[in-house]
Amino acid sequence: MAKIKPSKGAPYARILGVGGYRPTRVVPNEVILEKIDSSDEWIRSRSGIATRHWADDQETVTVMSVEAAGKAIADAGIAPSEIDAVVVSTVSHFKQTPAVATEIAHLVGAGKPAAFDISAGCAGFGYGLTLAKGMVVDGSAEHVLVIGVERLSDLTDHEDRATAFLFGDGAGAVVVGPSDVPAIGRTVWGSEGDKSETIKQTTSWAEYRDGHPEKFPAITQEGQAVFRWAVFEMAKVAQQALEAAGITAEDLDVFIPHQANMRIIDSMVKTLKLPEHVTVARDIETTGNTSAASIPLAMERLLATGEAKSGDTALVIGFGAGLVYAATVVTLP
């Protein structure tokens, strides 16, 4: 039997650069209230959201991704041609094939990299980051572009009082490359498929095609069930990620959870007993829930505002439809 030569890449991987894109249109709660019976106070108290960004016709999944990717590549200090793989996490690119990653790769000038899409909802960035780390360490890629992008305004029922205010649009990207020291911890990830009905698309594309029902599919969720799961179960996952990285909450500089709900974020901070010195991402107030884009967008904003700095140790965790989750500890670029 022939022996296969072992693959070997960099000893470790790290995030080299980050970039984000938020659509130009800012949508305050007052606009949401035009179609639902609620109030600005109720929306803020339930979710912490004051505004969100909605894409216009020109701000497609591709366009937003290219903008975010360009910033991440520049921040990483590499040329676009040095990108060896492109991983895009999204649930709101409405073409089943080809993968939008291939178009993005071409438009950013990456040459002929491996390119594919993944669907892991709000945990998608964590899944993409884990795949990228594996590629760099394995040696199948030296630089990997990971993008989380959503146009959730397209999948929002704007008359649903429970979800109409939640979702926003945007794209966040990072470049993952080689490192001489550990800078991306072991990912704690998984799924709980018995809860798959908790967050879902209301109907399939086939059902919509056949006119049953006539209303365009939207994202729906069982709010209280999601809240309980996120607060109690995801705090455990976050703790496991800390342990996997060999650190404690005291060693953290930054906490970047998926921007699902301000109450969930605050409850996780309390459950994890994070020290006061830890900077907590609360980008949801002005960006809303952007699913796969939320973690890189929040990371980019913290670094841009100086609330976090290069070299900081950050705990990131995403969780959502599936139900799926992914948590890891990273060194910020």
Descriptive account of the structure:
- The protein is an alpha/beta fold and 333 residues long.
- The model has no long low-confidence stretch (mean pLDDT 95).
- It is globular and about 60 Å long.
- The chain folds into two domains: 168 residues, 3-Layer(aba) Sandwich (Peroxisomal Thiolase, Chain A, domain 1); 144 residues, Thiolase/Chalcone synthase (Peroxisomal Thiolase, Chain A, domain 1, 3-Layer(aba) Sandwich).
- The strands form four sheets. A five-stranded mixed β-sheet has the order 1-7-6-4-5, with helices on both faces. A five-stranded mixed β-sheet has the order 8-14-13-11-12, sandwiched between helices.
- Helix 4 links the parallel strand 4 and strand 5.
- Helix 3 packs across helix 4 and helix 7 crosses helix 8.
Helical content stands at: 25-40%
Would you identify the regions where 5 or more consecutive residues have pLDDT less than 50?
none
SSE string, helices as H and strands as E: EEHHEHEHEHEEEEHEHEHEHHEE
CATH class of the largest domain: Alpha Beta
Main sheet characteristics: 5 strands, mixed
DSSP E strands, number: 14
Structural class: alpha/beta
Question: What oligomeric arrangement do these chains adopt?
Answer: single chain
Please work out how many helical segments DSSP would assign. 10
Protein name: Beta-ketoacyl-[acyl-carrier-protein] synthase III
Keywords: Acyltransferase, Cytoplasm, Fatty acid biosynthesis, Fatty acid metabolism, Lipid biosynthesis, Lipid metabolism, Multifunctional enzyme, Transferase
Catalytic activity: malonyl-[ACP] + acetyl-CoA + H(+) = 3-oxobutanoyl-[ACP] + CO2 + CoA
InterPro entries: ACP_syn_III_C, ACP_syn_III_N, FabH, Thiolase-like
